[in-house]
Amino acid sequence: MDMGQLGSILPLILLVVVFYFLLIRPQRKRQQEAIQMQNSLTPGSRVMTTTGLFATVVAVDNEDVVLEVAPGVETRWVKAAIGRVVAPGDALAGEPVATDEAVDEKKNESDIAADHNGEDSSTKRRD
What we know:
Blueprint: H1 3-39, E1 46-49, E2 54-60, E3 64-70, E4 73-78, E5 82-85, H2 90-93, H3 100-116
Antiparallel strand pairs: 1-2, 1-5, 2-3, 3-4
């Protein structure tokens, strides 16, 4: 193999190595962590599904999990649909609470922005 052939093959080899370390390896690690989390589910755990539904684990079968989404309402899910285990208080900690004052403040900000754009907010139609 002469230097010309090595010079043309070397970028391809480097590209494969970069793809492995930046894409394939981290994805495998995430998959293993997800499988480990799904296999460690126990009744009473608070979970969030991949669709964003918060529930409590009632029972765990081989590949299924029975979740209680409201008192007396139980649904059966595949373990792979469980996105993460939620610590108590995490479900509400990251969500902002919309109050009437926040909504009024938002309306006032949009009126101010409209005035700066040369629009008359009193004649603007709101649907």
